[in-house]
Amino acid sequence: MYFVLVSVLACLASCHCFIERDEKNENHCGLLQHWIESSLVSMEIIKRGFHREVEITVELSPDVHSAVRVLLLHRWPRGVYVDPYQLASLSDLSDWKIILDSTIDLEGPAHKTTGFVTFVYPTPDGTTPTLLKVTIPIHGRYHEPSFVGETFTSVEIEPPELLLWTEKCVPLNNVEPHDVMEAPCTHHNSSSCQWVKQQHQQKEQGPVSVQFPVGDGSLCGPVCGGTLLVTMLCCVALSKHMWEHRII
Amino acid sequence: MERLITKLTEKHVLFTASFVIRLALVAYGDYQDKTMVVKYTDIDYHVFTDAARFITEGQSPYNRSTYRYTPLLAWLLTPNIYLSMVFGKILFIVCDVLSGLLIYKILLLKGLGTEAALRVCSLWLLNPLPIGVSSRGNAESILAALVLGTLLCMEARHLMWGAILYALSVHMKIYPVTYALPIALSLRTTETRSEDKKGIKSLMRFIRSFLNRELFLFASVAAGVFCMLTALFYYMYGWEFLHETYLYHLTRRDIRHNFSPYFYMLYLTADSGWSQWLGLAAFLPQLILLLVASWAFHSDLSFCCFLHTAIFVSFNKVCTSQYFLWYLCLLPLVIPHLSLSLKQGVGLLILWFAGQGLWLGPAYFLEFEGYNTFLWIWLAGLLFLIINSFILMQIVSHYKPTQTPQRLKVE
């Protein structure tokens, strides 16, 4: 009898513990949901030409814990690229870290390459200020010449997706309507974590359009003709001149 | 005796000063890299160092993207990792000053006086372009030293050493392979033109003139060294070595803007069926000019190699400012024999810089301001070719070799 009583009490006690932990978990997950809903991500592209800078500003909710990690997931189109070597030298000077999902072809034209994904960790050391700024240098690729008279081509750059993670909301559940996504925990890329992703509808900003000059394909004939004519004329003139002044 | 001492002092002053200037710039470059956003060191230097780092980790240097050089260079720069990052730059500036010394020795061998030779080689030693290039960490000075070393050995008739240095230069960069024809023509047995027979007998005699001991020695040593190096690195790094060091440069179709007159044509036709034929058509002027230059000037090897390199660079499908150093290091060998006045010489120099400036303007607006200046860049590229051709014609007209071979000038 006593044994039954003790076991029932033990069961009740452990159930109470689980419920408490669950409640705490739900509290933290609720907070996480609240933080992700109240955060804002904005993007601005500065500079001109083939070398630009993407300035990303993240405004987090003021009551965000320092135990929260932030991740910016950026899906880049194939019309631009980042230079991993430039990023490596920049990472010594900046407080944000970045990892790429694939090797980047630094020289290929746009139509022969693919887009890529970057994971930016604005606060790798764990401190989470409420205003984060990250500036990523990007470079435009050469595009196919236009045969319809267009002098510029547009590349659409989407603003990054904001992801948050806290160890106090594990496992992640009840964070609807937000999605849960797996991504590297830190820039060391040694383990994977479950991150909460901000919903698409919440994004203040649509894609930003960047223009790059392209060659005029309709001039192909005159350009080829002109180039071959001038090079052959120079070749003939120089050959004739050298032959006339040859040293026997 | 006093005059000798003065001369020695002058020579030592010149070479020491040029080394010190370069060393000071290397030190300054280190300071600028650490404190300013715009770096002094060239991106290529980081490419070499990263490749050297891969070697120290037992891997292939070609793991470093855009490393398109011989593994020998990465091996040479492994002290960058073991000792100090600045080792490579010191090596490059030493080779740069060595190039100046080689120019000096070649000029002396060709019969120029000491003072005149020193003045001419100061055009290289105190020239801001090679000073800047080598102190920024470009490896061009190693190649300049190898090519000048080859020419010095050929001038002094040390054929075996000439062949070894020639093989090393071709191993480092492909373009010295074009020197093979003038070298072969200069080493063949020259006969007196007593018989002026045409036809098959003359052709047979021409072919037989190539079969002599000296040419055979040069060809076999050069080919042997080159094949040995190729085999060694192929064994170590496989197909990637062949592709990145040689094939890439031979098939390179860089559609991004550069000084070449062919740039826009290749960009617009990159994906069309005409691309291969146009590539071949672009190769023809280069080939024709190299053959004519070899035949016309092979008796003066330094001048011939200068013309070869200048033609190769100007008519190439890709041309960047680094390539200019390939023929600029040979220009001091040509200058003493030019009958151009100072005004004419400076005029040609200004014309050359103006040609570059006219290209750099629209190129800057394209790359950094985003304007569509492709047409202007194309036209500037054509103009630059015309200017280069004109300058080469002026140099050829005013070149007076000091040796006995007669100049033929059709009136």
Characteristic terms for this protein:
heterodimer, A: 248 residues, alpha+beta, Immunoglobulin-like, six-stranded antiparallel beta sheet, four-stranded antiparallel beta sheet, 3 helices, 12 strands, B: 411 residues, mainly alpha, 20 helices, globular, disordered C terminus
Structure description:
- The complex is a heterodimer of chains A (248) and B (411).
- With 248 residues, chain A is an alpha+beta fold.
- Helix content of chain A is 28%, strand content 31%.
- Chain A contains 3 helices and 12 strands, in the order αββββαββββββββα.
- Chain A has helices at residues 2-38, 84-91, 220-244; strands at residues 40-46, 51-59, 68-76, 80-81, 97-100, 116-121, 131-140, 152-157, 161-166, 179-184, 192-197, 208-213.
- In chain A, the strands form 3 sheets. Chain A has a 6-stranded antiparallel sheet with strand order 5-6-3-9-11-10, covered by helices on one side. A 4-stranded antiparallel sheet of chain A has the order 1-2-7-4. A two-stranded antiparallel ribbon of chain A has the order 8-12.
- Chain B is 71% helix and 0% strand.
- Chain B is built from 20 helices and no strands.
- Chain B has helices at 2-35, 43-56, 71-76, 79-82, 87-109, 114-125, 128-135, 140-155, 159-172, 180-187, 200-208, 213-237, 239-251, 263-268, 275-297, 301-314, 324-328, 331-334, 342-369, 374-397.
- The radius of gyration of chain B is 22 Å and the shape is globular.
- The interface between A and B is large, with 47 and 63 residues.
